[in-house]
């Protein structure tokens, strides 16, 4: 079976299984309306879970096989469109966050402040669907996030199903921006557009969590991608900065890209009377001013406040080893307990979160300085590479990290002609993370047997996918052609298999 067809079949399994084994409604939903509610519990749910899990495994396999065929950009784009289109009709999967999005919008609509009050203050159909862990938690997201939720709930009223449909449309719009921007960023900085789209959009983590899970990263990453593309293509970066600022008004982590845009502005205006340091200050001040102006405009339009700034670091409930502080605490606690059996994990976690917060600030500053412009070379590629590295530092050291957070890293990882090890690590980690989450949102990251088998599968897949191909004589020089990352070099529009004359 061709990789594209395998992916279509896998996404169809995910879509069908999602209605019984996904992040299903606690009350109501399509299965109940169709008289098939028995598929959401007992043996029926087990069957649906089997379909969904098989679909996820199939999608990962299709993604790997797709690159093994050495596809062109058009082939990757067709595959992504087919897979995303089928996932678009699934129920929410891998997370219940979209219900919280709707609830927070309904709170703002009804006159409550999601920055100071939890969802429990506003009983109704949306509250019934919010995970119990989040019913008394404030939101760390910006005014655009709340404005979108307010608009959706104003439009659909208390109809949860219609609210999910509208949020899926938001996710698809954001994902479309990512698909449109990534190949163009790669072309602008001398990368491989097909690799950029395969790694950054066809990636199962992106498809499952941004479209299936409907996380607001879809819109945020889409806006940042288009904003970066504008800054790379145009001498005047202000419109691109405004788009990134719009993304910041959705989720603060989008701001990680801005310091590298400032370097880009400095590079293009270095020959001025202000000097390099003066130009750096001027460009930084201008970028900050544009951000504040855009966010203030969104805040005014949505009817919210700047209270989200106080809530950014407030979420500490999520515990998983995707976050560096959590992983460190889990490694050092057993060691310290050998010397003091009263030592507690929470004590270690408090220490590591404090230490890693400092490491984040230092790491971001170091990355920004390492990826500064160099004399005599274009800065565009380094700007994209630096942005990718900065996002990786931010999420690896953050107190709480979930798989969809890494969408900012994954989306850019293939655009800038990265070293082979970057692609290998991204592919391997994507395979493990894509397989680690169940339809309901629970994960297997503490299942040692799963982690061992998933790691072995990832290593085998990466080695098979990127092993050196046989040397092919070059028609032009009689030498050998070898493309990056184990993909045979060929013209972009050439057939998958070519033979020397």
Automatic annotation (TrEMBL):
It is found in: Membrane. The chain crosses the membrane at residues 46-67, 79-95, 164-182, 194-212, 243-266, 278-301, 351-371, 383-406, 418-437, 449-466. It comes from the Bacteria. It is a multi-pass membrane protein. Keywords: Glycosyltransferase, Membrane, Transferase, Transmembrane, Transmembrane helix. Residues 471-501 are annotated as: Disordered. GO terms for molecular function: glycosyltransferase activity. InterPro entries: MptA-like (IPR017822), MptA/B-like (IPR049829). GO terms for cellular component: membrane. Coiled coil: none annotated. Belongs to the MptA/B family. This is Alpha-(1->6)-mannopyranosyltransferase A.
